[in-house]
Amino acid sequence: xxxxxxxxxxxxxxxxxxxxxxxxxxxxxxxxxxxxxxxxxxxxxxxxxxxxxxxxxxx
Length: 59
Fold this sequence. Notes:
alpha+beta; 59 residues; 3 strands; 3-stranded antiparallel β-sheet; 36% helix
């Protein structure tokens, strides 16, 4: 599980079943063909917040 936190906007995403390293890669990805719901949420979060101050923590 990974917790992704945007310090600039005080927002976070909890990603069950996604490890922090994979979450970091998904944040930089614009699309993934067979993404599950958690991966899609991380991708969308990354599109809007990848230039912000981000922390990715293991849960």
